[in-house]
Amino acid sequence: MCMVVPWQVRRRLCVLGLALIPPIAGLGPPAAARADTQEQTGSCVDPSLATRAVVSVSRYFTEPLHEAGGDVVGEQATAWFYTSPRLLVTAAHFANDLPDGAWQEVELRQAGREGEPETATRVRLRVAVKGKISEGPRRGPGPTGLANDVAIMELDDPFPNAAVLDVQLTIPAQNASVLILGYADGRMQAARGVVRRAGEAAGRYAGLALIEVQGSNRLLLNGGASGAPVLDCAKGAVVAVLNGLLTSPSLPFLPPQHAVIPTPWGSPTNTAVPAATLAAIRNCIP
Fold it and tell me: How far is 15 from 222, CA to CA, in rounded Å?
């Protein structure tokens, strides 16, 4: 199921069960002026080289939604520039709440490099094409229904000084080292990770790549990181699009602030849609 976390602007996050142990979109504190990098080993592309290609995208509701945690005025996800400064890729479970084909005003935020200010601007965009994802429960023995959880959005005008990311259409290899850049909790985060399973090897998550974030914060890529690019460490090309968070079963006796339990060490922490899915929907843009 998709868990919704209210925080002034909502970060929608798909929380999924993983075997015996159990992605991402909503607004919060301003983005940091630089990417906070998780613990890492080995070589990888410099995350600062890709920060101009990744943005936080927020849409605001006409009227606040009244929920148990307080009023929610909008929701947020992560997006990145694909083939041009006018095309953005994000998760379909965020784009599904935007009107198909109609221009919508949203806010794009981009963390600056060290010593540079954050960029925030209102723009108009529309959903150009999106993959179809199944609705309903995300738990149980069957597929999650999120294998096509990607969307391409078109900006009315090109985003200034935007960088465009290259895409690798082959399924990421098991144990490959990756770098994920996403606006979790409204702040740019750069995390190293390892592909634990991909493609058919994912079994009940057929079509998804399962990634383990390295470092002590296994819940780092949470609400707001949906749509984040997963980059191959060797070449810096996008191999997948982040769309879910994997957690262990919650414990009923814990207070709400500790209700989300991370997966054990050595197991995946997040799900992602392989970038090859983009090629299929890219050809469907009108």
Answer: 9
